[in-house]
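quick one before i forget lol
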Amino acid sequence: SDVCSSDLSVARLQAERGMARLLVETGDLSLVESAAVRGISVDLQVPTGSVFAAASSMIALEPALPAAIDRGRIKVSSAGDIGSNTAPVQLSGSVDLRSASGSIDATGSGSIEMLRIQAEQGHVSLRSTAGSLILGEAADVTGNALTLTASSGPILAKAGSTLRANTLDVQARDDIGQLDLPLRTQVDRLVAKSTSGSIHINEADTLNL
């Protein structure tokens, strides 16, 4: 693991057989163009700043060792924003993203499993361009506004997961939820669109469409 006490730019942080952990005690973390952050698990902590991502940078998980129970997760926590509308963080795998006072913008070219995503004071935008978006078991996904997009696949949910927001926009090519495992939501306003599948959503209370 590494610790930095000022603004930091990263070009490569790779642990092929272990955890890649980085704490930026004061300041921002910037992933430069084509940066790679990889490990069997990844933990990036920016307790006073934001996380910025340049084009073609990537946070990803290494293949698990044979003895490993699972591949771990990508964990990113910050005081401010994680990514931006114009430069989202690029990632893949199982993700745990938390912003204390900002927004979260992330995208990936493969399937993404959401273990926990929290941006209660900002928006969350998560997109998979060539895979599924999956709410993990007991996942809590919370934001003032949530936008989930699966351009080439479904948006699915495991047991006990919940989406919480003032506004929720979910769009997928294939199914949104399943009959036996619908998306469970607690939102005020909902927009949902599937271009070639079905939609299964269970809302906890009053809803505007």
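fyi The chain has a mean pLDDT of 93.
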